[in-house]
Amino acid sequence: MSSAATITAQKLGRSFGATAAVRDINFSIQRGEIFGFAGPDGAGKTTVMRMLAGVLRPDSGSIAVEGIDVIANPEAAKSKLSYMPQRFGLYEDLTVAENIFFYAELFSVPRKLRRARAGELLEAAGLTAFQQRLAGQLSGGMKQKLGLVCALIHTPSVLLLDEPTTGVDPVSRRDFWAILYNLRESGVTIVLSTAYMDEAERCSRLALMHAGKIHYCDTPARLKQAMPGMLLAITAADPRAVRAALADAPGVLGLLLMGDRVNVRVDDAARRAPELRAKLDARNIAFTGINRIEPAIEDVFVALVGGGAPA
Amino acid sequence: MNPRRILAIAYKETLQVWRDPRSLAIALLMPLMQMVLLGYGISLDIKHVPLCLYDQENSQTSREMLQDFTASGWFKTAAILGSNRAVRAAMDNATCIGALVIPVNFSRVLAQTGQAQVQAVFDGTDANTTNIATGYAQGVIAQTAATFARRWDAQHGVRPPTAGSINLQSRVWYNETLDSRNFIIPGVVAIILALVGAQLTSLTVAREWERGTMEQLISTPVTSTELLIGKLSPYFLIGLLDAAFCLLTAAFWFQVPFRGSVLTLILTTALFGIVVMGIGYLLSVRIHNQLGASQIALMLTMLPIAMLSGYTFPLDQMPAAIRAISFLVYARYYVTLLRDEFLKGSSLAEMASSIAALLAYAVAVLWLAARAFRKRLD
Fold it and tell me: Which residues contact A161 (CB under 8 A, 6 or more apart)?
């Protein structure tokens, strides 16, 4: 991985009316990274992606992609990058093959190369058998994979994906990520946004966004280290009761409901675990176990950024 | 400009029209429907005007006069009446829109003096029809009078004292049979092209915004000029096909005489097509939803063109202010050109000003359309 930054953004800002969607953010992305913007809906992820793609003008700040000033010269930048919007952007009344052909032509992919490349990408996406199907008749996951095929047909050096796996089934999502990892091997820089924290974990570097700002930006591992405190998972039949009972217990820094368990962030796991156990027993709240766990990105996000936890 | 991108867009657009029943209906069915509806539905000719007859004399001469009226084809006998009161009643209840009253001493006065009077009464509610019917009535009477005059000559050997010293020999040029269809059909062709062209192209960009395909499209290196040319060219070809259909129907089905040059016809039609489609495209770029764009396209084309293109309502009869506005209605130039080409067979020089006006329109519209499209979401 070379250390040259492929994308740099400085003091990037954009408002819609009175609402500041993105506020003075800075980041730089290295070649070959899978860089993620993670945050809840309304954090400003889509606005950032659109500005990077050159389809939305920032109010302030600067963006450079591969050394090209995107604001001054968006058209030059567009030939270097591929952008997949959050909403399916392909033609539902065209077939899979017709959509791919259209985007190949728009990017002037040499004809000989086009066939071979389309074949490879379709194979990787598992869409080879569906070439004659209208895009509108594909499942959500297949649509996203077709979007990816169209975005990759011209071998971009930067790939921008806005919430690419929203509404995609787990199998398709796995295929999707397999393609992304392969791309990364070949040196493509991938920038994506996601509201799924489990997905954010797959990125090589992550910007945690909330209310138009990047609060933390680092590798998932280092973000986890940066989380203050330790995590205890308490599994219980009624996790809400557990959360209510422990909300103001000493040493508890935060609580996060996770299905049938509560993740309790405490200052010192060894010291607090017996205390919490005693407190639950005293209140007669049944639970099956208290275990120290490694934090997931979701825990880190809530601990570092606070506010509403993303999905 | 990259020809590959233009072709790709044109091909994609063609596939989409082909698969979109709504666009296909506008492209193929609308011209047929309109041609039948407007071609047959609108006629300024008035035939078989219902006429009541009140013959007070009932002589051979008076019956001859009435016979001429019914034989002319302009009038048909609605009722034969016997009193002035009955005439009024028939006009009131719209049994007829005109009545011919022949006075009781008609043939006697005619025989003695060589002059006689008949009375024609018309219902003026529909002033236009009445005007035309009055004109027809005068024509019929003039003919009958001529017959009577010849007969007088034969009987008396001299001309009747006042029978015309000036004899009008009128001839109508360009539309010899004075068939209003010859005048209207070329206008109908212009209306159909304007309507179909603007409707089709008004959907093309709006559709991309509405379906969410625009965001990805503008993230590619395609330029707004490439998009304009790529998107308009399939519709332009469809428009030319529609034009060919309409013009051939006009010439062969409706038998409108064609006296101009086919090449000029094709060129001016193409020019008009560019204007019409450019306007639709311009609307489509500005209004990001299909329904809105097509509604406005309909409003902007149908009403001004129907009223101010001169296709039915003569422009030179309008107040100066309205006539001034009509110069903005691009269809008026094409309507004029079509009539020149069909009926007059005018030379290029004679049509130069109309062609220049259309050309100016085409250039302006395309320039605006190319500039109006911004490759940005905001």
Answer: A49, A84, A148, A151, A190, A191, A192, A193
